[in-house]
Amino acid sequence: MSEECCGSDEQRQTVGRKRVELRRSQAGGDACCAVNSATDSVDLASRSSEADACCGPDGAAVAAVADVARPSWWRDSALLPSALSGAFLAVGYGLEWAGLLIPALVLQWAGLLVGAYTFAPGAIRRLMRGRLGVGLLMTIAAIGAVLLGRVGEAAALAFLFSLAEALEDRAMDRAKESLRALLSLIPDTARISRLSGDLTVPAQDVRELDILVVGAGERVPTDGVVVEGRSSLDASAITGESIPVEAGPGDSVMAGSVNGAATLRIEATADGRDNSLTQIVSLVEQAHARKGNRARLADKIARPLVPAVLVASALVALFGILIGDPWTWIERALVVLVAASPCALAIAVPVTVISAIGAASKFGVVVKSGEAFEQLGTIRTVAFDKTGTLTRNEPAVAEIFHTPGVSNDELLAWAAAVEASSTHPLAAAITKASSSPGMATGVVENAGRGVSGTVDGRRIRIGNVRWIDPDPARDVAESMSARGMTVVVVEADGVIAGLIGVRDELRPESAETIRMLQELGIDAVMLTGDNARTARAIASEAGIIDVRAEQLPANKAAAIDTLAETQPTAMVGDGINDAPALAAATVGIAIGVNGSAAAIESADVAFTGHDLRLIPDALAHARRGRRIMTANIGLALAVIIGLFPLALLGIVGLAGVVLVHELAEIVIILNGLRAARRPKPDRRMSPLAELSPRLATDSVDVQ
């Protein structure tokens, strides 16, 4: 239930939430980690600082319940009070029908007390603190029914309400279960390399800079960088990508990834208690704390509705007293009290949001708030950064042109020799392309222009077309540039030796992603700091028409502001230069686990993988979640609006109103859980296109 309507989760007294206390204490948490007996709902995202100080960071605390499984229906102790209440009530009605009134009354009282125990004490405590909730309405209705001699109806109300509460708790547990299941991907123990040999320790005791030994088929206990060995890693459970990724020295790996056939030595870059996987779960657990538009709408309606219902019921009872028929109208007042209670409205959004966000996390989409999830479903334009988002961020030599008397190998060897000491991304591409680079002396780098040096007695200059005139190969240079390449001119002893075309290749799934967005009716825009000719060439291959090139970070943010004024706009990026635009967008989406910290911090949604097709999948998932939330709110309001006049006119009695209300709540819960279904992606790419490359650490626009 929402805090505004029913009081804070910490104050609710259902047996279902007490189950969490038992589970946590069994999971090994100490006294300060366990839920107090007076606390029925401990949200993992709203831990007190005191608990954090005792138990460690949120990620560690969440890990304590990672392996807790929800019991089967028939073994769930949370349902026991409702089951007993229902059994007593049913037998009591049976005995009443048989004429055994005294035993029937005793059993009805038993059913009432057992059912009311799950909500009445908490409602009274909240009332003493000045808080009103649905539980208070139900408690007043039950007491009033007893005073009117309707013990059976009071027992029916207590049974149905306690059952709905228990089912709601179970639904919330189920919605959060997928998040906690992520933590089971972290192994219980880890092997750490020591001078004296390998040492096995609990995974939570791993510390940054420890050297981990991960054997074939084992899971990586925390984030790290491979320092020795080469293998393939399956991160499908974390990133949603089914193709294993090759990993060797210098490559980053995520906690929970499954190692392939070879042993790896990995230097830990995060503690075992606080890594990317625990952070993902912590983020998603916090997501429903920030409410979206529909959550706020439900709360705005529910918050004043409880006192309004109390006032309306009091007026109905007062009317009966004034006309001289108090008992009839007091009974109607109790029925009105139940009919207008917003219990179904309070659960209409939260169960949907938690289910949908939990499902999204399972295919590599971390949504940071309920508000972000709702806004994600409104997006009509998606703006993409180019480098590192639509492209691989791995500049590579795409084409070579050499003049007569010079071979490709010679040209690359000369260029690689003088570029060997440069940190420019184009230099790395040229060096990588050469199989036998020479040795250069007297190397001088001219910032923004190129580099020169002596190789095998030849004076070699390599640089852009602004520094070295590409004549007599100007036509070739223009052709390369038109096809999205950055042209590097190589000169030997003052004569043009050839041209090298370097390009950051488009991701294989980029064009498919744009097509999928178009099918959803979503426009695509490219924002990049690269030159206009290169940007247009890459955009044309991807299928993007709206291209805005040579954009500085401030320009990107301004462009997003302009787009967002006309329709909801998402920005997709991974680099530091994307952070302002991500923050300005309706929804900022950070791509890739290796994206810059600034991008991830500025974004509302983070993709743990780097398959761009997750974007249309996530948008379709969010749209479906919004539809479910809207339907739930509509049903909840329809129940209140429909039952109120029927209760006021005496057409429907207390038992009927309770039955309809609680059935509606169950329907809303079940409908909300539908949001946990993962969307079925439409994949029409070739098998080769499934091989998505890894992202570099930060985005660098190729000039």
Textual characterization of the structure:
By secondary structure, the chain is an alpha+beta fold. The model is unreliable at 1-69 and 682-703 (pLDDT under 50). A 7-stranded mixed sheet has the order 10-22-21-20-11-18-19, sandwiched between helices. The chain has a 6-stranded antiparallel sheet with strand order 2-1-3-9-4-7, with no helix packed on it. Helix content is 49%, strand content 15%. The protein is elongated and about 115 Å long. The longest helix has 35 residues, at 614-648. It contains 27 helices and 22 strands. Among the domains are: 189-274, Calcium-transporting ATPase, cytoplasmic transduction domain A, CATH 2.70.150; 365-391 and 507-608, 3-Layer(aba) Sandwich (Rossmann fold), CATH 3.40.50; 396-503, 3-Layer(aba) Sandwich (Calcium-transporting ATPase, cytoplasmic domain N). Helix 22 links the parallel strand 18 and strand 19.
Which architecture name of the domain at 365-391 and 507-608 does CATH use? 3-Layer(aba) Sandwich
Number of strands: 22
Give the strand order of the largest sheet, numbering strands 1, 2, ... along the chain.
10-22-21-20-11-18-19
- Unreliable segments (pLDDT under 50, ≥5 consecutive)? 1-69, 682-703
Shape type: elongated
Task: Estimate percent helicity.
Answer: 40-55%
The CATH first-level class of the domain at 365-391 and 507-608 comes to Alpha Beta
CATH superfamily of the domain at 365-391 and 507-608, please?
HAD superfamily/HAD-like
Query: What can be said about the biggest beta sheet?
Result: 7 strands, mixed
Q: Gyration radius, to the nearest Å?
A: 32 Å
What is the residue-mean pLDDT, rounded to a whole number? 74
**Class from helix and strand fractions:** alpha+beta
CATH topology of the domain at 365-391 and 507-608: Rossmann fold
Query: Count of helical segments?
Result: 27
Fraction of residues in β-strands: 15-25%
Span between N and C termini? 54 Å
